Amino acid sequence: MWSSAYLCGYHSYTLLVGKPPFETKSLKDTYSLIKRNEYYIPSRINDSARQLIKRLLRLNPDERPTAGEILGDPFFSGYIPVSLPTSCLSVAPHFKRAHVGPGSHPPDTGGWGGAGLLE
């Protein structure tokens, strides 16, 4: 049975890694990986994202986090901009370190949510 947490994990993995977690060249192999819950998280993915994805993609739905537990996860403890510029569609944004981190309060952005935070 699919759950919202599982789908969040699937889509989070896809967005962070750049491809779905169970993707193979053959549909039969893809289904086999899904049934066994086998996927690889590249080392370039930071530990907080890695741990959240593992929790979200747990095979047993009863072991997956609730929406409240997901929002309280350490992955979401840093600065999250209100919005991003369209340039983020092709280039990753670079945030000024002074404004990134738990409890940080960005300056007035004067337009889109994070304009004052990009280097």
Short account of what is shown:
It contains four helices and no strands. With 119 residues, the chain is an all-alpha fold. The protein is globular, with a radius of gyration of 17 Å.
What can you see in these coordinates?
- The chain is mainly alpha-helical and 119 residues long.
- It folds into 2 domains: 4-76, Transferase(Phosphotransferase) domain 1 (Transferase(Phosphotransferase), domain 1, Orthogonal Bundle), CATH 1.10.510.10; 79-119, no CATH class.
- The chain has helices spanning 4-17, 27-36, 47-56, 67-71.
- Helix 1 packs antiparallel against helix 3.
- The radius of gyration is 17 Å and the shape is globular.
- Residues 104-119 have low confidence and may be disordered.
Roughly how much helix do the residues carry, as a percent range? 25-40%
Strand content: under 5%
Q: What is the rounded Rg?
A: 17 Å
Q: Structural class, from secondary structure content?
A: mainly alpha
In the CATH hierarchy, the architecture of the largest domain is: Orthogonal Bundle
SSE arrangement, N to C: HHHH
CATH topology of the largest domain: Transferase(Phosphotransferase), domain 1
Keywords:
mainly alpha, 2 domains, 119 residues, Transferase(Phosphotransferase), domain 1, 33% helix
